[in-house]
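Backbone Fold Data
Goal — fold tokens
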Amino acid sequence: MTVRVRFAPSPTGIPHIGNSRTALFNWLFAKHHQGKFIVRIEDTDRKRLVPGSQEKIMEILDVLGLKEDESYRHGGPYGPYIQSQRLHLYQKYAHQLVEEGKAYYCFCSPERLAKIRKEQQKKGLIPKYDRHCLHLSKDEVEEKLKGGQKYVIRLKVPDDKDISWNDLIQGKITINTANIDDQILLKSDGYPTYHLAVVIDDHLMKINYVLRGSEWISSTPKHLLLYQAFGWQPPKFGHFPLILGPDKSKLSKRHGAKSVLDYVDEGYLPEALVNFMAFLGWNYEDNSAILTLEELVKLFDLDRIGKSNPIFDRQKLDYFNREHIRRLPLTELAKRLGKYLPADYPLKGDKFNRLVELCQPRMTNLKDFLSLTEFVYPQKTAESKDLAKYLKTTEVREVVKNIRQKLTQIKEWKVSSIKEVIEEEVERSSLSRGKVFMALRIAVLIRPVTPPLFESIALLGKELTLRRLDIALNWN
């Protein structure tokens, strides 16, 4: 039997990295088993829809390389793949359950429901519908329907029944129906609730594995009850552990719960994000291993997903990003840097490519390139506070002055000649190598952290190097 999984986001905003991990795990599982990855848009919560978020959801999948097999973009045999285009199906099946005595019409007003809920909470009870409309006679129901009274359709949940399933990740789970409300299946506006739509769609789209976050565990009994009511074979369920922040609370924006697109804008590689997200719950022999999407497909399976909640570690994300940047071919790295560079960036062609090569081992994210190479702008000069810190002593200034004088005598401006001059003057002085080099970095390359000193000075050129040394030596 072909494995069929789905990623079914709601376009109520741009999903954060935790939602994207769910998509990644589903995609990896499908591809590992030569199965199908289906994307379905669940847009029945009309009040919470955010314009443009559907397109952003698909953009995230594209950025990560998670190509879907079926969706509203690519089509497929079980469409439409947008729930708002499937309303007739939900209405048909909801009324079918009423006819079979497995669901019922509820005409209670929002005011009455709120009153019941408040009274139950006062008594310390779990708020549940009191089944007032379940006991209406057939004639009473007909009369209300003919009168045009608004209604919802509720599932008739059996009393005191254990609902169990063998979760593919969490193990056996049992929840008693005493804790389950007679959930609404069809709202008064004709739109389904999540529970009805997801079961109908998963069945009709032949989804046989439902893999989602553990926050959906409490919904699974409701879904299993619906499968039973329809007489359908349920899929296998697996619930991924929740991602927690470093303080072990629910992952939030302060921890880094941003979208994949935000991280890409900050200079993170999609490859690094995939590698990082894979280890948020999935275990390998070495959880710091640098793995490509193709390698993950070969290795990934549910038996390596643990029950414990993984911790979102920004430092680990930085580690993966550094390593993936270092593994990029130089031509590819140069190409990717293009989107982060301003139009007036001074270096082009061979010089730019050489600078990329120098910076590659020093970058944590792609945006670091701009700060590392600020020195290439001719108009830039060191800040006074840095000059005051690193060129304040007479001894340092004297060595820098001697270096400046010797550099003027270099006829062929190349790395070896520059290195020879600078190291010779360092040897002659009583100062440490680090102190002199830092003074030169500040004076010529503007910042304390730069690409390699000699290579950067060679790339900068003789004229600009000497001009900056003069400015630094004449400071104050």
Observations:
- The longest strand covers residues 162-167.
- The chain has three domains: 87-240, 260-372, 375-473.
- The CA atoms of residues 223 and 261 lie 32 Å apart.
- The longest helix spans residues 17-32.
